[in-house]
Design brief:
It is a multi-pass membrane protein. This is Transporter SVOPL. Belongs to the major facilitator superfamily. By secondary structure, the chain is mainly alpha-helical. 68% of the residues lie in helices and 2% in strands. The protein has 16 helices and 4 strands. A hairpin with a 2-residue loop joins β3 and β4. α3 packs parallel to α9, α11 runs antiparallel to α14 and α14 packs antiparallel against α15. The longest helix has 35 residues. The two termini are 27 Å apart.
Length: 430
């Protein structure tokens, strides 16, 4: 859950709506007559072409990140073979990617809160990389696969100019004129008009301060959320990398395995470095990716019925169970089903912790709070390869156990979260 980044529950549109739908602290009346708030303007403008454009562009950014993460799983067998890498060296390659994410996480959140929010479909990106692996790696090689996978990122850079600055951010910064221009632009694209009068909302005095995160109101919440994000990422990327390692090295306890899955990584005369993914392996990974959206309706139902905290607890306990079930002897079809359900659970967990974090922090510190949480999630992503790609060769049970234990501990920690955000008004300031 890098660091996530997917589906309608975690898309950037959700955060855009969070920012634009918050109720202001107060509504000031000016001497010139009528006034309106950002919330009222958004209600008047309604849904239209701007939101579709936002959905496509910001969804595409999620696709790009998912492609980069899934690339680690698909390319690992190829670089292990060509460069004769040991397990720890393959894991180090994965860890460096998450290190870059971690360093930029807090910095990006701080810059967004101070200077603006140009925000930075997960399953789609994962599936694209797997399909590229099936088509490109056997013919052109893994280097061409990386070159092709970079192309969407270059295109996306030019598309970001179509995303205006957040009106809610501009208001909180006291830049009302810029907020009005943003709302006018959205209204023009949606063929609507703004409410009569002028925009009037109070400016937030404290923005982008880490002191809010560690204040008496949010200290316990912040610490628990940092661990929740760590576990969300640790479990998510653990499931992705573990599945690729199990398939590549044929470490599964499979009944009636075909010849391709009988070649082992560790042999009597040494290591077998070159065990490429078979076509069936790509199919298994592809099907497991579908699990990230297949149970979204269930995810929504749990959120609306049980709330955020209880949903997190249920998902994390179920993920802990399915991590251990991966170790049982079954058919390839059975493994595919288990992997599908595991990917569903860890993905839903990432969705919920993302939503809860966006709802629990006030606008004054939301991006910074998300930045801190994202950095802790990247730490989980940095550790996951050394469990999934190194320890897995020694013992499948020992490699899967840390993921399961981390999920159980996180589930217990949820009971200490002081705030349930279901039905709770979103805050402009602390």
């Amino acid at each position: 859950m890098g660091d996530g980044m997917k589906t309608q529950l975690v898309s950037a549109i959700h955060l855009q709506e969070v920012e634009l739908q918050e109720k202001p602290a107060d509504k000031r009346q000016g001497s010139n007559g009528e006034t309106f708030t950002v919330e009222e303007a958004v209600e008047k403008i309604g849904f239209g072409r701007f939101h579709i454009l936002l959905f496509v562009i910001m969804g595409s950014s999620n696709i790009v990140e998912a492609m980069e993460i899934m690339l680690l799983a698909v390319v690992s067998p190829e670089i292990r073979c060509e460069w004769r890498l040991d397990d720890w060296q393959v894991a180090l390659v994965s860890t460096m990617v998450f290190l870059g994410f971690m360093v930029c996480g807090v910095l990006g959140g701080y810059v967004a809160d101070r200077y603006g929010r140009w925000k930075v479909f997960w399953m789609t990106g994962s599936m694209l990389i797997i399909i590229l692996g099936m088509l490109v790696v056997p013919t052109l090689g893994w280097r061409w696969m990386i070159r092709i996978s970079v192309t969407p990122s270059l295109i996306l850079i030019f598309l970001f100019k179509f995303i205006p600055e957040s009106a809610r951010y501009n208001v909180s910064a006291g830049n009302v004129d810029a907020a009005v221009k943003t709302l006018q632009r959205i209204a023009k694209m949606n063929r609507a008009t703004l409410p009569p009068g002028r925009l009037a909302e109070p400016a937030v005095r404290e923005r982008g301060s880490w002191r809010i995160l560690l204040s008496s109101s949010y200290r316990r919440t912040s610490v628990l959320l940092w661990y929740s994000w760590f576990v969300a990422s640790f479990a998510y990327y653990g499931s992705v990398l573990s599945s690729s390692e199990l398939l590549e090295k044929n470490l599964l306890c499979v009944t009636g395995a075909d010849r391709e899955h009988q070649v082992k990584h560790r042999q009597e005369d040494g290591l077998c470095y070159c065990i490429p993914f078979a076509f069936n392996d790509y199919q298994t990974l592809l099907i497991s990716c579908l699990g990230e959206v297949a149970l979204v309706p269930l995810n929504i139902g749990l959120l609306n019925v049980f709330g955020r905290k209880m949903t997190l607890t249920v998902l994390q306990l179920m993920a802990a169970i399915f991590f251990m079930l991966i170790n049982i002897c079954t058919t390839m079809f059975g493994f595919t089903v288990l992997l599908f359900l595991l990917r569903s659970l860890v993905s839903m967990n990432f969705n919920v912790v993302y939503i809860y974090t966006a709802e629990v922090y006030p606008t004054a510190a939301r991006s910074l709070g998300m930045g801190f949480c994202t950095s802790f999630s990247r730490i989980g992503g940095m550790i996951a390869p050394f469990i999934a790609q190194v320890l897995m060769s020694q013992s499948v049970f020992l490699a899967l156990s840390p993921f399961s234990v981390a999920c159980v501990l996180c589930a217990l920690g949820n009971f200490l979260l002081p705030i349930e955000t279901k039905g709770r008004a979103l805050l402009q300031s602390s």
